[in-house]
Amino acid sequence: MNKNIDTKKIIISNPLKLDCGKKIDNFPIAYETYGELNSEKSNAILVFHALTGDQYVSGKNPITNKDGWWSYVVGENKPINTNKFFVICANVVGGCMGSYGPSTINESTGKQIGTDFPIITINDMVNAQYELIKYLEIEKLFAVVGGSMGGMQVLQFVANFPDKAKLAIPIACTSSHSAQNIAFNELGRQAIMADSKWENGFYSNYKLNPDKGLAVARMAAHITYLSEKGLQEKFGRKLQDRDSLRYGFEADFQIESYLRYQGSVFVDRFDANSYLYITRAMDYFDLSKQYKGNLSDAFKKTKTKFFVISFTSDWLYPTSENREIVIALNSIGADVGFVEIESDKGHDSFLLDVPSFLKTLGDYINSTYKVINERRI
Amino acid sequence: MKEEFNIISNLIGENSRVLDVGCGNGDLMKFLQENKTKDIRGLEISKEKVQNCLSKGLTVIEGNAESDLKQFPKSSFDYVILSQTLQAFLNPELVINELLKVGKKVIVTIPNFGYWRVRLQLLFKGTMPVTENLPHEWYNTPNLHMCTIKDFYNFCSTKNIKIYKSIALKKSRISEINKSNLNYKNLDSHLGIFLIEN
Question: Fewest beta carbons less than 10 Å away: which of B33, B147, B158, B193?
Fold first, then answer.
């Protein structure tokens, strides 16, 4: 929400031609880095964030004062060990944590851009972040890693820049957004746009915020990140701070109270228009369509090593969709590993404490780093 | 185990492209990676074993050979290895056909059910054989289609599959199998190793 915080930022002066046909230039990309870049510049890992993520992967997020969104994975002595790797994460174009987005102030009007902001795509996000890699003067990344929308960016990055990463790890994602995923995103957008305070996207001009709509969008989405079993085990029919039903519409059940809380904290840190734009970018994502229906062609030019990971209870980006990526890679003889991790934490598994995921990911990254370095010597 | 790995390694050309089907914890992959070729992949059905392989940095895919070999293009590997796994498939014939499509050459090793120690157990004890090489009881064995060296030899000739090399292993003694010594090797070896081609 473009709060006054001290985010690292670069201004991209190169004009970027967006998929929608518009051009943007002199726009900001906010980012954060962790660890040190070694002298050979061979230890850089670019992490892509998911729909509601930001550049604060690890440590304390200065906006929310909570742990970074991928603290289980990135940090000192974590699976992606920042004592060893130089980790970069940028806020996506369209986001609301300092990068160019609908809440950016238009200098000529002094007002937020709102829905005058152009429609952006996963491709646009990746192209903008490539400018950051150029700015950091990193010739070749050791790895590109991300889950969910971050995984889509991993796939798009390798397709766009086939020789810029040695290793690619797309997690719990898809190569093309399914009808079910579009449906859930549309539900969230409609909730926002149905809020009378949305004002066609120009709410900030009226000092309004469609927080009710955004909270409903978040609540609906949050359900899709969990699993039926996980919900049942955690909440069941337990009541919230009461011994019996109240025969009304207050939050009687713990699950209701939990979702309301998730909705309410979300609106404090996220911009409603960004939610519209970023979900749209995900819906438009169809990598195989970009390559005339042949997903394998997206990876034909690359020697990048792939490691695809899915989770058993993820019904939003199910194993079958992750396997499509593996199949496309195998059919061109690419170097790809794949595992489906057992977890009842649903799509959110990639963000949570799932020990077999964290161990496999960490061990794989470390041993691959060793193998690639040994080969070079 | 070590002898089997050595024999397989000797059958494989330097720096060739290899797929290990049913790669388990990746011991053979690791051995070949250190001794023969870096270009090696694995396919394994057990999640836990796949995770062990990936932890070692090995490129392994979780999947089922009976349904997932199709995704590899024709002749995309110089060698496809099936080490002591053929007997565990629901449809070994289908798997052999898939292997022959994906690999230019295929190496199949089979625990020999015709080994005299195995035969004696059934003959004298009257129970299903349990040996060092076949450690399971009848009720928990993953082995659905046990065969002998002779069975596999005959299978190849019936199906017009070319046998380039067939090797018998007894403890650490290695010998060639041919038409004339087939009955003897079938009795005296615990493992058969075949290099075949379509």
Answer: B158
Residue A268 shares a structural domain with residue A352: no
A222 is catalytic: no
Domains in chain A, number? 2
Q: Do A339 and B59 touch (CB under 8 A)?
A: no
A101 and A193 fall within a common domain = no
- Give chain A positions within 8 Å (CB) of B63: 338
User: Are A150 and A25 part of one and the same domain?
Assistant: yes
Digits of tens for pLDDT over chain A (377 positions)? 445 557 899 999 999 999 999 999 999 999 999 999 999 999 999 999 999 999 999 999 998 899 999 999 999 999 999 999 999 999 999 999 999 999 999 999 999 999 999 999 999 999 999 999 999 999 999 999 999 999 999 999 999 999 999 999 999 999 999 999 999 999 999 999 999 999 999 999 999 999 999 999 999 999 999 999 999 999 999 999 999 999 999 999 999 999 999 999 999 999 999 999 999 999 999 999 999 999 999 999 999 999 999 999 999 999 999 999 999 999 999 999 999 999 999 999 999 999 999 999 999 999 999 988 765 54
**A358 and A274 together in one domain:** no
Tally of CB atoms within 10 A around A367: 15
The answer to whether the CB atoms of B47 and A339 lie below 8 A apart is yes
pLDDT tens sequence across B55-94: 999 999 999 999 999 999 999 999 999 999 999 999 999 9
Q: For residue B77, what is the nearest residue in chain A, using CA coordinates?
A: A333
Query: What is the domain extent for residue A258?
Result: 182-279
Domain ranges for chain B, please list them: 2-197
Among residues A148, A227, A274, A343, the one annotated as catalytic is: A148
Q: Does residue B61 belong to the interface with chain A, where contact is any CB pair within 8 Å?
A: yes
**Is residue B51 less than 8 Å (CB to CB) from chain A?**
yes
Q: Are A346 and A225 in contact (CB under 8 A)?
A: yes
- B-chain CB neighbours of A366 within 8 Å are 57
For residue B72, which residues of chain A lie inside 8 Å, CB to CB? 330-331, 333
CATH number at residue A256: 1.10.1740.110
- The two three-digit tokens of residue A240, written as one number: 């919230």
B60 at A interface, C-beta within 8 A: yes
CATH of B2-197, one of 2.60.120.600, 3.40.50.720, 3.40.50.150, 3.10.20.10: 3.40.50.150
Whether residue A375 and residue B38 make contact (CB cut-off 8 A), yes or no, is: yes
Q: Count residue pairs from A and B with Cβ separation < 8 A.
A: 62
CB contact under 8 A, A364 and B55: yes
